[in-house]
Design a protein that fits this description.
Order of helices and strands of chain A: EEEEEEEEEEE
Number of helices of chain B: 0
Distance between the termini of chain B: 36 Å
Strand content of chain B: over 45%
Structural class of chain A: mainly beta
Largest sheet of chain A: 6 strands, mixed
Order of helices and strands of chain B: EEEEEEEEEEE
Radius of gyration of chain A: 13 Å
Strand content of chain A: over 45%
Radius of gyration of chain B: 13 Å
Number of strands of chain B: 11
Largest sheet of chain B: 7 strands, mixed
Structural class of chain B: mainly beta
Shape of chain B: globular
Distance between the termini of chain A: 37 Å
Largest interface: A-B, 22 and 28 residues
Oligomer: heterodimer
Chain lengths: ~110, ~110
Amino acid sequence: SQQGEEDPQALSIQEGENATMNCSYKTSINNLQWYRQNSGRGLVHLILIRSNEREKHSGRLRVTLDTSKKSSSLLITASRAADTASYFCARTTGGGNKLTFGTGTQLKVEL
Amino acid sequence: NAGVTQTPKFRVLKTGQSMTLLCAQDMNHEYMYWYRQDPGMGLRLIHYSVGEGTTAKGEVPDGYNVSRLKKQNFLLGLESAAPSQTSVYFCASSPPVYEQYFGPGTRLTVT
């Protein structure tokens, strides 16, 4: 079963606006990762944040992690139409580098 | 450098038929994974492998078998397909820690 929830399930914004997606989970983690999936395609890794980190940046992406609240957020600044995709958080727990995915947020960026 | 490739891209099976999905990676990764993705859901781990000759069960292993005879290949078998196995199947590979690299997916329909 899925070990977490993401919200919102869907998000529609205008180009140039910021998009924020949230992820919650139930068990302790080794790290948390965010992936992007364009329609009908495989997943692409965006950013990884370790359990002892609180914030991480990569280009227009900013990820925060609050292990006390068991939650993470992904912020995409100055969104573009090309950012339209589904975004998933995924946690690694235990050995084997196994990922447990959330249900995803569908982001639509309109011109 | 092709990354992770999957064969076939599409397949339609009748209930009870068998098939094998092939995953190949050219990044010399130790770990490989098979996931399934159903509509509106994140990916769920079926089986994974932490090295040549080793396999382990994931979250939803029933009805599937896997083999990792060569480091670069990870095969997923369905011995007797059922309509509940209609899904999109993704293979991924990774080093022992950090991000996973995903293939483009195989869309399987069981009628």
